[in-house]
Amino acid sequence: MRQLLWWLIGGSRGGRNRLRIVRTLEERPMNTNQLSNELDLNYKTVQHHLEVLEENNIVTTQGDDYGKLYFLTDRMTHNLDILEEVVEQTDIDTNET
Question: What range(s) does the HTH arsR-type domain occupy (predicted)?
Fold first, then answer.
């Protein structure tokens, strides 16, 4: 999991946005539109990052189409401490716009 999070968060240009998505979903499930509004990101950008996170078993979904909600997987929830280690070591600032 550590290597995966380094690749998804610490080692890619989209890592900061993926981290913001994970942290937002940690608080409550949301659909793509809600995430787009909450994070002030383009809908297609959020959609792309969600696809990457889903392919890598970081998020899972319930529902269909626009009502599809995204949740953190149990695997991700159990490894949030590793995520925080990666964040600390990469010095990603999620408060920047």
Answer: 1-94
- Does residue 39 contact residue 46 with C-beta atoms inside 8 Å? yes
Cα-Cα-Cα-Cα torsion 1, 69, 39, 80, nearest 10 degrees, comes to -20
Per-residue pLDDT of the chain (97 residues; tens, 9 = 90+): 999 999 999 888 899 999 999 999 999 999 999 999 999 999 999 999 999 999 999 999 999 887 899 999 999 999 999 999 999 998 776 555 4
Q: Is the pTM of this model over 0.70?
A: yes
Q: Are 75 and 65 in contact (CB under 8 A)?
A: no
What one-letter code names the amino acid at 76? M
Q: Is 20 helix (H, G, I), strand (E, B) or coil?
A: helix
